């Protein structure tokens, strides 16, 4: 339980995690479900419990595609993607904790890869 | 009629077709798309966090440059549209964010969400009108069965994007009818292609993109259209389907009879 981190995530995401009724629709509709260790509904209740560090250290924070399916389909307007984003920011804002560095880019390129993919990855993975 | 036009980074490089057919077709429809003298990349993805300010500034600058010219701002890339539209929504509805943005930018007049943002498809629907567009079509794409791929960025979050019903959209299907073709409805049309995950997990992008393409094919599509360069890349390169994927603006130019002159 880390109250400082919990407060930061709640403030940054502006999400009221207490609205969640655990229906699991966010995880059911998530295109990255199979790739995640912790699923969108787990993000919501783990943040509620203050269990933030486990999430920050999980690869799951880099699997969210920001497709907003969980945001639009949540019957309680909890907006789980905003929680995932706030936890990811808490992780990558730490010094030396960028998930992507420019030196990695050349090996990822092919002749058709749009610039959009690169700028988006930097925005999601790097501070 | 003249609108400000935000092309974005990819339309200047890997997605030149999306851009050139958009501009040329708009001219035929009586609309000039004027690019601002200066603009910056939108960043590709909107940062939803309320304590992120710097990542939103390039969008605010684009929005404000249109406001100063008293024009609406037109986008065509789905990602640019999503980022700019969400920025505009939040600056309108979040006074704290608007204050921080304006304190930093020190514009002549503060920007508080005044600019109207149209995606090119919305411009066709709400400014030109699909009925008027149909009248301008000289080369109707008769007999073509076309699957519209919305992906996620055009529709969600629906409160901010406000383009169409996020679960049962019609704007691209109405566009397909206006250019004389037949739309194909399929369940994966508003599910994610995998997006930027192709950078570090090709297998996941392949799984998502193949699911979308196979669903379109099973429902009888001859081709898939999109407004997003990254969707086009994923659906073409990462899926196991041979179905053609093209930008919607290319078919628009073809229907308006100007595609060949643009190719020269």
Secondary structure topology:
The complex is a heterodimer of chains A (127) and B (264).
Chain A: H1 3-13, H2 25-29, H3 40-49, H4 52-56, H5 69-73, H6 80-92, H7 115-125
Chain B: E1 2-6, H1 16-28, E2 32-34, H2 57-68, E3 73-75, H3 78-93, H4 95-105, E4 117-119, H5 120-128, H6 130-136, E5 145-148, H7 158-161, H8 171-178, E6 182-184, H9 202-218, E7 223-226, H10 229-238, E8 245-247, H11 248-255, H12 259-263
Parallel strand pairs in B: 1-2, 1-3, 3-4, 5-6, 5-7, 7-8
Helix pairs in contact in B: 1-11, 2-3, 3-4, 5-6, 6-8, 9-10
Structure overview:
The complex is a heterodimer of chains A (127) and B (264). Helices cover 47% and strands 0% of the residues of chain A. Chain A has helices at 3-13, 25-29, 40-49, 52-56, 69-73, 80-92, 115-125. In chain A, α3 crosses α6. The longest helix of chain A has 13 residues, at 80-92. Chain A starts with a helix and ends with a helix. The model of chain A has no long low-confidence stretch (mean pLDDT 96). Chain B starts with a strand and ends with a helix. Chain B has two domains: 2-120, Glutathione S-transferase Yfyf (Class Pi), Chain A, domain 2 (Up-down Bundle); 131-256, Rossmann fold, CATH 3.40.50.11810. Chain B is an alpha/beta fold. Helices cover 45% and strands 11% of the residues of chain B. The mean pLDDT of chain B is 97. In chain B, α1 (16-28) links the parallel β1 and β2. A four-stranded parallel sheet of chain B has the order 2-1-3-4, sandwiched between helices. A four-stranded parallel sheet of chain B has the order 6-5-7-8, with helices on both faces. The chains are: A mainly alpha (127), B alpha/beta (264). At the A-B interface, α1, α5, α6 and α7 of A face α10 of B.
Mean of pLDDT of chain A: 96
What about the largest sheet of chain A?
none
Mean pLDDT of chain B: 97
- Please name the CATH architecture of the largest domain in chain B: 3-Layer(aba) Sandwich
Helix and strand pattern of chain A: HHHHHHH
